[in-house]
Design a protein that fits this description.
By secondary structure, the protein is α/β, with parallel strands linked by helices. The chain contains 16 helices and 22 strands. It has a 7-stranded mixed sheet with strand order 14-15-16-13-12-18-19, with helices on both faces. Helices cover 38% and strands 22% of the residues. The chain folds into 2 domains: 273 residues, Aldehyde Dehydrogenase, Chain A, domain 1, CATH 3.40.605.10; 185 residues, Aldehyde Dehydrogenase, Chain A, domain 2 (3-Layer(aba) Sandwich), CATH 3.40.309. It is globular.
Length: 502
């Protein structure tokens, strides 16, 4: 079906599109115009239960399928994603607002996780030790946990779900996706492509909704594991509520990512890299650089270079060629960001570039915020303490690398941090001393490739395991240790004591 022509979106349960039983619907808008493009159902507990029943019914057969067979479905899915990449990007741009190039790039990063998941026959191999005792072998195996759920954010409606479900289903689980209600259509298109790739009905399901659907997922006894990406307060709620219900939970929260710029850095290179990291996707990335820590003599020149480049950013609707930055996701998001800019001014930060009144001719009703730059920000200010999640970059000044690292380590968020320098000694000291989950050296957005794992520290992650990579395989499986002996008939059995095998 052509999902983009539907006024009301369906759910995807049991391998097909189905109408929700809920009577509550929300509006999906095009952020560049402010127009409502379709309506999304806010699923209730009955809708979630229907998805769990479909996933439960599919689990036994899918778990029993050889890993190579599961991998081949994902191989076909990957081919379909490549063939439909531009169409998926158009859906993302229409509902999220980011540029087509950015949207297509995010789909590509999701495809990379699918590629990683196709190696599941190798990734699931356990360990084997022969003859740990007389005629006794010991080995380990990993098995799927059951029905899993993913609750994903609006900023990457294709990539973040693909951080989760390809690995989950490759491991033999079934999956229920609760995407953001702000840009839900991409998830349904992914479900269609999975079905076309040969995924059995019920292995992948999509349930739209708001807090009611989330709470139903967290409370349902049939769901064994929950993955989440979103803000820190909600991540903490997801983790605590899911854990109380006996579920395995990984919950990734917010961020305040720093880029330290040393005086010896290539400042032209650093400025260009930071501009893309700060203002790309209108700053609506959990790995966006939102704070520059300018060390010593780097402060004045890096501020000047950032301001000059930010003034040249082309802001407008994401589907237009040569646009570098689109709108933010909703009117409420725009107003919140504007309010934080007001706070920065009121608290005494130096407003170098003001994006509160961007000029986007013909799109006066769109949710636009222009590139904004503050200098001389202090850690006590609201614009430093809060995750702005918009196109606002702040500069904090430090007198040394040590004090810059100390500043980063004091922040309650610990997702990513970058250092711009020509000094190998400074880079080594930074990567050793910074208390952060993902580190970049002259790389502003250190998002790992799919064969490594993504995740932060402190308030940026609740749970022990990160997403995708081998942490993803570990999260979506449980380990078993097997000790086996095959004695000849008549051999003596162990006595009442704890057996020793040596």
């Amino acid at each position: 079906m052509d999902l983009t022509t539907l006024e009301r979106l369906p759910l995807w349960i049991g391998g097909r599109a189905v109408a929700a039983t809920t009577t509550r619907y929300g509006e999906v808008t095009n952020p560049a115009t402010g127009e409502v493009v379709r309506h999304v159902p806010f699923a209730n507990a009955a809708d979630v239960d229907a998805a769990v029943k479909a996933a439960t019914a599919a689990f036994a057969a899918w778990r029993a399928a050889p890993p190579l067979r599961r991998a081949r479905v994902l191989m076909r899915f990957r081919e379909l994603l490549e063939a439909h990449k531009k169409d998926l990007a158009k859906i993302v741009t229409q509902e999220h607002g980011k540029t087509l190039a950015d949207a297509e790039g995010s789909v590509t990063r999701g495809i990379e996780v699918v590629e990683f998941a196709t190696g599941i026959p190798h990734l699931l191999k356990g360990e084997f030790s022969e003859n740990v005792g007389s005629d006794v072998d010991a080995y380990s195996i990993r098995q799927p946990v059951g029905v899993c759920a993913g609750i994903t954010p609006f900023n990457f409606p294709a990539m973040v779900p693909m951080w989760m479900f390809p690995i989950a289903i490759a491991c033999g689980n079934t999956f229920i996706l609760k995407p953001s209600e702000r840009d839900p259509t991409t998830s349904l298109r992914l479900a269609e492509l999975l079905a076309e790739a040969g995924l059995p009905a019920g292995v992948f399901n999509v349930v739209h909704g708001d807090k009611e659907a989330v709470d139903a997922i967290l409370a349902h006894s049939g769901i064994k594991a929950v993955s989440f990406v979103g803000s820190t307060p909600i991540a903490k709620y997801i983790y605590e509520t899911g854990a109380k219900s006996g579920k395995r939970v990984q919950a990734l929260g917010g961020a305040k990512n720093h880029a330290i710029v040393m005086p010896d850095a290539d400042l032209d290179f650093a400025a260009e890299a930071i501009i893309g990291a700060a203002y790309g996707s209108a700053g609506e990335r959990c790995m966006a650089v939102s704070a520059v820590v300018a060390v010593g003599e780097a402060a004045e020149p890096i501020c000047d270079k950032l301001a000059a480049r930010a003034k040249r950013i082309r802001t407008g609707p994401g589907h237009v060629a040569d646009i570098e930055m689109g709108p933010v996701i909703t009117c409420a998001a725009r107003d919140r960001i504007m309010g934080l800019i007001d706070n920065g001014v009121a608290e005494g930060a130096a407003l170098v570039l003001d994006g509160r009144k961007p000029a986007v001719p013909g799109h006066e009703s769109g949710f636009f915020v222009g590139p904004t730059l503050f200098d001389r920000v202090t850690p006590e200010m609201t614009i430093y303490r809060e995750e702005i999640f918009g196109p606002v970059l702040i500069i904090v000044r430090a007198d040394s690398l040590a004090s810059a690292i100390e500043l980063v380590n004091r922040n309650p968020y610990a997702n990513g941090a970058a250092l711009f320098t020509r000094s190998g000694h400074a880079a080594r000291r930074f990567q050793e001393d910074v208390e952060i989950g993902m580190v970049g050296i002259n790389v502003p957005i250190p998002v790992p490739m799919a064969f490594y794992s993504f995740g932060g520290w402190r308030n940026s992650l609740f749970g022990d395991l990160h997403v995708h990579g081998m942490d993803g395989v570990r999260f979506y499986t449980r380990g078993k240790a097997v000790t086996a002996r095959w004695p000849d008939d008549g051999s003596a059995a162990p006595g009442f004591h704890l057996p020793t095998l040596g």
